[in-house]
Amino acid sequence: MKTKNFQTGRVTLVAFSHFIHDAYTSFLAPLLPLIIEKLSLTLSQAGLLSTVMQIPALLNPVIGLFADNKGLARWMVVLSPTLTAIPMSLILNTSSYSLLLVLVFFAGISVAFYHVPSPVLVAKYSGKSKGLGMSVFMTGGETARTIGPMFAILAVSLLGADHFYAVMGFAFFTSVLLYFTLEKEEEKIRIKKSGSLKSTYDEIKHVMIPLSGILTARSFMHASMGVFLTVFVERQTGSLWYGGAALALYEAFGVAGVLSAGTLSDWLGRQRVLFWVLTIAPVAILFFVFTTGILKIVMLVITGFTVLSTTPVMLAIIQENAKFNPSAANGLFMMISFAVRSIAVFFAGIIGDIAGLENMFVVSALIGFCAIPFLLKLEH
């Protein structure tokens, strides 16, 4: 059932589940220094962890089509927080790199099951204000990536690495809350028709092709800052807390960015907002690398605000153009997003091993400028 009105309560509930779910996926980056030390990993091996977590995203279009045709969006959203929390709460208890890869792979499956249908629910609850709805939804995720890293470090400090698994309890509560709250609502918005991936792609290819180019160019900025920022700061300062604080600051202003960008795009236009953030982001990263003190912190803030703010705008574009199979369309978008980011993380790790972390950030910023030509090809 579509509505013209913005349903604040329902959008907020899904955004809350996004917060809980993504808090667990945010544990990997701040705990990487401990994992690297414990298992004696290289940066390439560390980057591969994120890549492996993204592999299940290749199935996103199939998952989306299945959700559209079978009406299983509720169950995916309900179960995913718990299914993600279990492996992510055990990453410090592994004794081998291979077992760690297995854990993050299973977490990736659950991540795919959550992120494909949840934006579709938000779009339907947002009426004509899809930009605002996606901003609220993405704010849940970015808030998780702001608080999650510091929570993970605090939990390790209080519980110790051996008992870190206890943090999974929050996810169980969330799944129960979603089960009793979303069960009846899903019936009202179920899409009761069959579709195909080809028809879905044909419907949105005029926006998907340029958005894919933007995602590819942005992925190196997103990957380098999101995965290796903690390691970069920890190596410069010798403090894991400073590394976690830097990531938290980056994500905190990412929250402001995602909340602002989608809302502004409702008023100013999707392309105009994307142009400004995609132009400023790589410049901010370059200044972040080559400055010190307060100016470095300011550049980190601007980077977080701009790099992370593009997603709700692009999600709104996809949902506005996907009329018949919105979950499958979102699945295609998320597959490309996760795939290019996972590849970018791996290659960023290789660049970091060969040329150093500073040069890795520089290369990522230069690639980021390549998003502008694709944006100019995006149809109004």
Automatic annotation (TrEMBL):
Coiled coil segments of this chain: none
Pfam families, per database record: MFS_1
Residue ranges crossing the lipid bilayer per the database entry: 12-36, 72-91, 97-116, 164-182, 207-233, 239-261, 273-291, 297-318, 330-351, 357-376
Species: Desulfobacula toluolica (strain DSM 7467 / Tol2)
Domain Major facilitator superfamily (MFS) profile: 10-380
InterPro entries: MFS, MFS_dom, MFS_trans_sf
Origin: domain of life: Bacteria
UniProt lineage: Bacteria, Pseudomonadati, Thermodesulfobacteriota, Desulfobacteria, Desulfobacterales
Protein name: Predicted membrane efflux protein, MFS
One term of GO molecular function: transmembrane transporter activity
GO cellular component: plasma membrane
Claim: Transmembrane helix is one of the keywords in the record: yes
Keywords, alphabetical: Membrane, Transmembrane, Transmembrane helix
